[in-house]
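To whoever is on call:

I kicked off a structure prediction for a single chain this morning and the downstream step that reads the tokens threw a length-mismatch warning. I double-checked the sequence; it's 160 residues and nothing unusual in it as far as I can see. Pasting both halves so you can look.
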Amino acid sequence: MRKENTNIHKQSKSRVKKEGTDIDTELSKSQKTKPTPLNRLALWITEHVGTMEFFLVIFIWTVSWLLWNMFAPKGLRFDPYPGFVLWLFISNMIQLFLMPLIMIGQNLQGRGAEERAKNDYKVNLKAEQEILEIQEKLTIILSKLEELTRSSSHASDKSP
């Protein structure tokens, strides 16, 4: 049992040393990159378009537009029923402009998630390294306790 544990410890330790070099420096480097103003705009749009508030704005705008152009006095209607050509054009333009911006924002969010995952992995490696060091120290402590127990039992056996 003890040999298996030491083999596992050796494998983990070599992996930690290989992959976990200077974790603190790498973590601080990855936090320094800032998005450009256009990327921030894409992120802002992505975060706000996917909300219930945005849906309600679009829904109210659509219902108001359609109701106005169906039931308002004929002289005040600007997009005739049943075609609603202007409404369709504006809706399609909104979709055409939002779709690529949302995709850009999602890509940027994905990159951020990847960076966080990499940083989490590095932190986990560092924690694993510290755990291995603690386990080594505990192993040393246990072996010394066993030696003390043996020496005290030998001493008690010799005394009459």
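Update from on-call: the warning came from a stale cache, not from the record. Cleared it. Sanity check on the structure: Residues 35-107 form one domain.
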